[in-house]
Write a structure and sequence with these properties.
heterodimer; A: mainly alpha; elongated; B: alpha+beta; Phosphorylase Kinase, domain 1; Aminoglycoside 3'-phosphotransferase, Chain: A, domain 2; two-stranded antiparallel sheet; 11 strands; globular
Chain lengths: ~130, ~350
């Protein structure tokens, strides 16, 4: 049975607005910075709740087509770890040197999805989208 | 900050009292005034004071010390220990003295105290007045002229630094040629990932294919015949004292080592140090052409832009892994700081930049 409303995202959004609108104006000194970081963390988690599953399954599909296998482990988290371990080892050993363009493409797409959650305003991310 | 435990049993007023006594033993008759603990500096404690001599003259001074002289604050620690190339305060003071003698733009060191002193290893140097905060240096009108000259000036400063006679350097300065640096960050990345797999509730390692691609690229592009110069190790906006005419002093010598001087030029160009001024590749204030011209005209070696690019790539990788390390410090219990935890989510900013940097080359 799912939890009642408000949803996790809605709850976090409410707290974030409270921090930015109510708490922040009353602070001074180092706690201004800390409060901003706290509010930013809540917005990262909201984006992760909204987009995280989609980003993970896109990454899994990308890895499966790049490495030509499903990945061990029985659930998608374990498959992701298994395939990412192979990807990293194969880059490290030079085994994927000949497929640089395909590898770069996959890694770029995964990173774009990651940054859309972690920091969508980041200039390097906007540039990588061609903006 | 919450992650800086004070020395057990040593209050701020204890520190001030001992400092005054030590200063009295060094300076001509007089007294210490305006003793004040300053904020800033993540792993170091910085105190400001004036020595007012009996003849009426006053000298502005800085004390630089480690907050706890027993154990690590975590700031410099990998698995709680020291990094392989972070200097203790005594050696840092000695290095600053060497650079000062060679005519470098650095504060004069008056005296230093050994590691076993009650204050811990520490030293007292001239206080150079000016702005240190990078965003102000990059945006305030007062530094508009400074910004125009700083790239060239950085080249000049580095040319001088890299020509310091190796024989004059502190004996225990670490040699960090490029392969040793790469190996150091390789170990840090693998160690953090293994820690997450084995010691945290999530129980999963962390994978960074863009870092792997970068390590591979670095291996294949290692500069040939690299010299062994004195390297500052953290030469960037944020470690400069700046006045309206430009840089007055270079701070923070604790990552000083012997290696390829081009490391300093590449690090200065890393995107994180542009503080949002992305169109100015040199520290957010200048152009590479000016940096290189300043370096060569001041007697530095002929610059190979490809080599500086190599070091910018390695610098961006370093910063990305340091972002991971910040989160690790909280998650492993070395420190208690939710801000540090959040920095872990910034590793990927460096990864997306690295893809571009290794494709450009």
């Amino acid at each position: 049975m799912p939890q009642d409303r408000a949803s996790a995202e809605e709850l976090l959004g409410g707290v974030e607005i409270f921090l930015r609108k109510e708490v922040l104006p009353q602070l001074s000194g180092a706690s201004i910075y800390q409060c901003r970081v706290a509010a930013n963390i809540l917005s990262i988690v909201q984006r992760e709740l909204a987009q995280g599953d989609k980003a993970d399954s896109a990454e899994l599909q990308g890895l499966q087509s790049l490495l030509g296998r499903e990945g061990e482990g029985g659930n998608s988290a374990a498959q992701l770890d298994d395939l990412n371990a192979e990807l990293c080892d194969s880059i490290r050993s030079g085994k994927l040197d000949g497929q640089r363009a395909v590898v770069l493409n996959h890694v770029r797409k995964s990173l774009q999805n990651k940054l859309a959650i972690a920091n969508p305003k980041y200039a390097g991310y906007r540039e990588s989208l061609g903006e | 900050m919450s992650d800086q435990p004070d020395t057990p049993g040593l209050s701020d007023s204890d520190v001030a009292g001992i400092l005054e006594k030590e200063a009295a033993a060094y300076f001509p008759a007089g007294k210490a005034a305006n003793i004040e603990k300053m904020s800033g500096g993540a792993s170091r404690e910085t105190w400001s004071f004036d020595w007012q001599a009996a003849d009426g003259s006053s000298t502005g001074l800085i004390l630089r010390r480690d907050p706890g002289n027993t154990g690590s604050t975590g700031e410099e620690g990998w698995r709680g220990g020291k990094t392989t190339y972070s200097l203790d305060r005594t050696t840092e003071a000695e290095l600053q003295r060497t650079v000062y003698k060679a005519g470098g733009l650095v504060a004069k060191v008056h005296f230093s105290l050994p590691e076993d002193h009650i204050l811990g290893g520490c030293y007292v140097m001239d206080r150079i007045e000016g702005e240190v905060l990078a965003p102000r240096i990059l945006r305030d009108e007062a530094y508009a002229d400074a910004r125009k000259t700083m790239a060239r000036q950085c080249g000049e400063i580095l040319a001088g630094l890299h020509s310091v006679d190796p024989v004059s350097l502190p004996k225990n300065l670490v040699q960090m040629p490029v392969k040793a640096l790469i190996a150091y960050y390789r170990e840090l990345l693998d160690g953090i990932s293994a820690f997450y797999r084995d010691n945290t509730k999530v129980g999963r390692p962390e994978y960074h294919p863009a870092f792997e691609l970068t390590f591979r690229w670095l291996e294949q592009n290692i500069p040939k015949n690299a010299p062994m110069d004195l390297v500052h190790g953290d030469f960037r906006n944020g470690n400069f004292v700046v006045g309206p005419q430009g840089i007055r002093a270079v701070l923070d010598w604790e990552l000083g080592h012997v290696g390829d001087g081009m490391e300093d030029l590449g690090w200065l160009c890393v995107r994180a140090w542009r503080f949002g001024q992305h169109d100015k590749p040199v520290g957010g204030f200048g152009e590479r052409e000016d940096l290189f011209a300043g370096y060569e005209n001041a007697g530095g070696r002929k610059i190979e832009p490809k080599v500086v690019h190599f070091w910018e790539v390695l610098g961006t990788l370093k910063w990305g892994i340091i972002c991971m390390f910040q989160a690790y410090k909280h998650l492993s219990g070395l420190i208690d700081s939710f801000e540090h935890m959040a920095i872990g989510r910034r590793a990927c900013e460096n990864e997306i930049d690295l893809l571009k940097l290794i494709e450009e080359a």
